[in-house]
Amino acid sequence: MEYYFTIPQNIDLDKNELSLKDFEYKHLVKVLRKKPDDEITVTDGIRNIYICKIKMITGKEIICEIIEKKFNLNEPVQNLTLFISPLRNLSRLEFVIEKAVELGVNRIYPVICEYTVNKSKFSKSKLERIKKIIISAMGQSQRCFLTEFFNVISFQEMLNYTSSFRSKIVMYEFEKSDSKLQKINDKDVALLIGPEGGFKESEIEILITDNWQVKSLGSRKLRAETAAIVSVYDILK
What we know:
Largest sheet: 7 strands, parallel
Mean pLDDT: 95
CATH class of the largest domain: Alpha Beta
Order of helices and strands: EEEHEEEEHEHEEHEEHEH
Structural class: alpha/beta
Low-confidence stretches: none
C-alpha cells in the first residue's frame, strides 16, 4: 500500500486527526474513489507515518482519524545528497529525480558545470512540478522522508556546501574501469554526476584536490541519467 502525503501543519495530534488537501485529495477522491471508513497510510515527509481511517470527505479535504503512529520506516541509514548537472531534456532529469527518490536520496542539487548545456534556473512552475513528482515517488516507494530539491547552484557553491563531507564521490567516464564504488560507512555522502558532455579535466583536478573520490561504472559509457541511478543504488543498497 502506498503512502500519501500531508504537510505537518495539517496534523492535529490533540484531536488525533489529520487532513489531506490539494492533489493528494484529488487523487484519493477522484481517481481511487476512497470513501469514509477506508484505511490509508499517510506521512508528513519528516519520518512520521500515520495509519488512518477516513472520517469525512468534504469538497476540498479528507479528514482522517489517526489509528496508529510509526516512525522512520524504510529509510536508508545514509543521508545521500545527489548533485547532478541539469540535462538538456527536462523529462530525463525528472526521471532521474523520481528514481533517486524511490532509491532513498535525501537531497538533490542541480549543479552547473563547465559543459552543462542548460544553465538556467528552474521556474516556479517547474519547481512545483518536480515537487509533485517527488511526493508521488515518496509515496509509491513507501518512504517517509520527503526528498529536498533545490534550484541550480554553481560548481563552486557545491564545493562550499560539501566542505565538511567525509565521503564525496564523483563518477567520471575516463577513470580506470576497475576503480568502482566500495561500501561506504560514513553517514553523510555526496554524489556528483556530470553533464552529458562530461567534465572538464580541470574540474576533476579541482575535485581531487578537494578530496573527492573519482570512481568508474566500468568500461562502458552510460548516459548521465543511467549513471546517476546505478550509482545511487550502489551506494544505498
